[in-house]
């Protein structure tokens, strides 16, 4: 081989290496750009969904605002949420008697009271119970 052929081969190899390196770099750059575009599309879709949710919430709040101009709706809210009563109405409060355990709460005192009540004293008949208010 002559000296020129050796230089050509070395130059050809160098050229191929530079070309391969450039192709790899271009592929990496292109891949990164594609990934950025993919992420932006995902982010845009998530933002669109969030905007739709917020628009629904806003519509619900606008409807609630319109209902708050109705005196009947305000009265309904006052009765349900704040236990208010109207004029000339008598409030009715239901209070449960906490003294009646009969051992159902699982405590030892309640169980003992329930057992004692069942063994020693018969239950009173309706005629014997005092009238309740």
Defining traits:
mainly alpha; 67% helix; 0% strand; 133 residues
Please give a structural write-up:
The structure is a single chain. With 133 residues, the protein is mainly alpha-helical. It is built from three helices and no strands. The model is unreliable at 110-133 (pLDDT under 50).
Report the end-to-end length measured between terminal Cα atoms.
123 Å
User: Tell me, what's the shape?
Assistant: rod-shaped
Average pLDDT, all residues: 79
**What oligomeric assembly is this protein in?**
single chain
DSSP helical segment count? 3
Number of strands: 0
Q: DSSP strand (E) fraction?
A: under 5%
What is the CA-based Rg, rounded? Answer: 42 Å
Order of helices and strands: HHH
The percent range for helix content is: 55-70%
Structural class: mainly alpha
Q: Uncertain runs with pLDDT below 50, 5 residues or more?
A: 110-133
Report on the biggest sheet.
none
